[in-house]
Amino acid sequence: MEQLEDAKSRKLDGTCIRTTRIFWKLLVAPWRLLFAFVPPYQIANGWPAFICSLIFISGIAYGVTQLTDLISCVTGISPFVIAFTALAAGTSWPDLVASKIAAERQLTADSAIANITCSNSVNIYIGIGVPWLIDTLYNFVAFKEPLRIQNAKGLSFSLLIFFATSVGCIGVLVFRRVTLGAELGGPRLWAWVTSVYFVFLWLVFVVLSSLKVSAII
Fold first, then answer.
1. What range does the domain containing 211 cover?
2. Is there a contact between 205 and 161 (Cβ–Cβ < 8 Å)?
3. Which of 3-7, 42-46, 48-52, 124-128 has the lowest mean pLDDT?
4. Distance of alpha carbon 121 from its chain centroid, rounded?
5. CA-based diameter of the chain, in Å?
6. 26, 39, 112, 158: which one has the fewest Cβ atoms less than 10 Å from its Cβ?
7. Model-level pTM greater than 0.85?
8. Could you tell me if 199 and 191 are in contact, meaning their C-beta atoms sit under 8 angstroms apart?
9. Is 194 part of a structural domain of the chain?
10. What is the enclosing helix (H) or strand (E) of 123?
């Protein structure tokens, strides 16, 4: 009887695994087909592959922003709230994976933390700075007026909350260095406490910023 149950259990597990694999292959099939058009990296020292990858990523980013606008229109949720939550989490997922791999493979936490800080620096200084410069020049040439932010108060408030939560985050890293001798890892209890605290800081930022742009506070 036990052998029969074990056989049924193994069969059920095998079915679940096959179903998961089929679902995953169907999910990634369009992306594999799209990026199959990227030239091999052996050509011209990889520059064509790099340029094509940037073009495809830019196209995907544009599609995501359009999808965000559609979701906002259908659900009635402010696009700023969607940007604070789903869009930000989706674009930060690669950073999370890269930091996780770096933390597991490196002897120190330098690579994991540097990846996060440097990627956000690129997002702020280049991802915002370059389009802002282009739009500012266009407004100056076409309309003879500077570029204005419609929701300046909401942006200022969000930046203030971001700065405050960043100070709290860096303070914890310094505290862990002094007390535990390491920014990441350590005793499992402290690792979980730190993780929950960081998630709490993110929730504080999202909730307060969303309430501000929704004119609730």
1. 150-216
2. yes
3. 3-7
4. 13
5. 84
6. 26
7. no
8. no
9. yes
10. none
